[in-house]
Write a structure and sequence with these properties.
This protein is 33% helix and 21% strand. It is of the alpha/beta class. The strands form three sheets. An eight-stranded parallel beta barrel has the order 3-4-6-7-8-9-10-16, surrounded by six helices. Strand 9, helix 9 and strand 10 form a beta-alpha-beta unit. The longest helix is centred in the middle third of the chain and has 18 residues. The radius of gyration is 21 Å and the shape is globular. The two termini are 12 Å apart.
């Protein structure tokens, strides 16, 4: 398995011939679209060539734990092709009321649980404090973690829902936890883990990407890495969103920032309890960027490459962040796109390998990135 970066005058036929790669497999693995135009700087995954990577037969999971978040409206085809690479399918998401009543997702999630079980992956219920506006609501968190009866009601509801639908675990994804709720949140996670473990269920918790004990900001101050790492069965580091919708153009998960979070986490949590969060998307920013005004559009990794091909622009690669990017013009407006490819995913996989982490958790699997999964399977 190797990564080839497209040069000027390259064609798929020329690359296959010179690199000794299977042409059909190269097209399929990299999701190339007829007539198979390429962008200079595009990264292609080549293999020599094992056809089982292109088929949904058997299980490909081994080596490390692989989790992927997905909404109930995911394409059935995308889910079917992705599940063979997953140890866990985290269904996003369940909410709750201030009185502790569980709120299921608007679309049916039962079919996802059944699909996961059919592929031998663990279906996990993701619990979030999302309000009616679809945003994380720290008032809901406070109402929960400060009142034991509300917690008891919610955990009982979780247990009943999991038993009824076949879920095997819970992922607690609470963001913007208030600093004054920090210890109470940790206690809630410990209570939930203890209770659900007694019933045979696993509990993980998602952690905002801190790099020090005293890191300021609403996203970080309510997260006690050491306490939460001890309270849950394992943790997910949300190591993405440095580049985000309303921020300036930059990599979503620059490797130097990701490494800082991992190294801090390892001072608080055993390596075999840490899953590294990996983004499966990018952003397209119109320029010039104006704080409070500019909003980036989310796009998939394959979609980003197709955009570079369409506009005839080269893809560049930032060495510090280990992330691809490019610029293009549309209707007199310049745009800047940062996304992920097999090179940037490979660098994140190396962190998992170098530090002996439990595994990865991909946010999210709604868009198929076949080359990334094939690469993962070739490394672990």
């Amino acid at each position: 398995m190797e990564i080839y970066v497209v040069r000027p005058d390259d064609t798929v036929d020329k690359i296959a011939q010179e690199q000794g790669a299977d042409l059909g497999a190269m097209i399929e693995v990299n999701q190339l679209v007829y007539p198979y135009r390429l962008a200079v700087g595009q990264a292609l995954l080549l293999e020599r060539i094992r056809k089982e990577y292109l088929q949904n037969e058997g299980t490909k999971r081994r080596g490390i734990f692989r989790s992927g978040y997905g909404y109930p409206f995911i394409s059935a085809q995308v889910l079917e092709e992705t599940l063979p690479y997953l140890s866990e399918l985290a269904v996003f998401s369940y909410g709750f009321t201030a009185t502790g009543d569980l709120v299921p997702p608007a679309a049916s999630d039962r079919w996802m649980v059944e699909e996961a079980l059919g592929f031998g992956a663990m279906p996990t219920l993701t619990l979030t404090p999302l309000g009616e506006d679809g945003r994380f609501n720290n008032n809901l968190v406070s109402a929960l973690v400060r009142h034991r009866r509300v917690q008891q009601r919610l955990v009982a509801g979780l247990a009943a829902e999991m038993l009824e639908k076949g879920y095997q675990g819970v992922n607690i994804d609470f963001e913007y936890v208030l600093r004054e709720d920090r210890d109470a949140f940790t206690t809630f996670v410990a209570y939930t883990t203890y209770t659900l473990n007694m019933l045979g269920y696993q509990v993980s918790v998602a952690l905002a990407p801190k790099n020090s004990d005293d890191q300021k900001g609403l996203l970080y101050e309510g997260m006690d890495y050491g306490g939460l790492g001890a309270a849950a069965n394992w943790v997910v580091l949300m190591t993405y969103e440095w580049g985000y919708t309303y921020g300036p153009p930059m990599a979503v998960a620059p490797i130097h920032q990701v490494r800082r979070v991992v190294e801090y986490a390892l001072t608080k949590i055993p390596a075999d309890k840490i899953c590294l969060g990996i983004p499966n998307y990018g952003y397209d920013w119109p320029l010039p960027y104006e704080r409070g005004v500019t909003a980036a559009k989310t796009l998939g990794n394959v979609e980003a490459v197709e955009m570079a091909v369409f506009y005839g622009v080269p893809i560049q690669y930032d060495q510090r962040s280990q992330t691809p990017f490019f610029r293009y013009w549309q209707y007199g407006v310049q745009h800047e796109v940062w996304f992920e490819d097999v090179r940037s995913w490979r660098e994140k996989f190396r962190l998992v390998e170098d530090y002996g982490l439990k595994g990865i958790a991909v946010w999210q699997i709604m868009r198929l990135f076949r080359a990334g999964w094939v690469l993962l399977d070739s490394i672990f």
